[in-house]
Specification:
The chain is of the alpha+beta class and 143 residues long. It is built from 4 helices and 5 strands; from the N terminus they run βαββαββαα. The protein has a single domain, classed as Alpha-Beta Plaits (2-Layer Sandwich). The chain is 38% helix and 29% strand. Strands 4-1-3-2-5 form a 5-stranded mixed beta sheet, with helices on both faces. The protein binds flavin mononucleotide (FMN).
């Protein structure tokens, strides 16, 4: 099967832990069924999501997400064929950046604030790889 990795950024229209609990719970169920894996970095000012899996399920999942009224201003950053998954252990790893992520985010910061809208495809791919390594070291995969 051809593997794809899609990375997009969006601006949340709703914030709060309960909204993301719901999103991540549904993502877990749906993505498990579709063999989609990935990570969702969420902050008050942006969502940065990595979806990986077969082209068909990644496309279907992305189209559903894109129609979700809980966010706006979606921009695709990357959509590439890849040889392996970065987040193979996670149906959807939720990452609310904490102080321990600061150094990681700083590596991808041009101005004073990390701004995913300014990431190039290459930088986004590098960020996804660094994030998967960081999360792999700091957390246990969800089951
Ligand atoms: C930022 C964001 C990320 C999301 N990520 C996923 C995801 O990875 N997988 C998924 O199935 N739904 C995701 N959703 C939710 C979908 O938009 C949609 O509400 C959900 O898939 C509907 O599932 P249901 O038909 O089982 O209720 C996301 C929503 C938002 C706002």
């Amino acid at each position: 099967m051809t593997l794809f990795r899609l990375i997009y950024v969006s601006r949340p229209k709703v914030t709060g832990a309960e909204h993301y609990d719901d999103i991540l719970m549904r993502s877990h169920v749906n993505n498990l069924r579709a063999h989609v894996t990935g990570a969702l970095v969420y902050r008050e000012d942006f969502n940065l999501q990595v979806l990986e899996g077969g082209r068909d399920p990644v496309s279907t999942t992305f189209l559903r997400i894109a129609a979700d009224p809980r966010h706006e201003a979606l921009q695709l950053i990357a959509c590439t064929e890849v040889s392996h998954r970065l987040f193979s252990e996670w149906q959807m790893r939720g990452v609310a950046p904490t102080a321990s992520h600061t150094a990681l985010l700083l590596q991808y910061t041009i101005g004073v604030e990390f701004d995913p809208y300014s990431l190039s495809q290459r930088a986004a791919e590098d960020f996804a790889r660094a994030l998967s390594e960081f999360e792999g070291r700091s957390a246990h995969p969800a089951t």
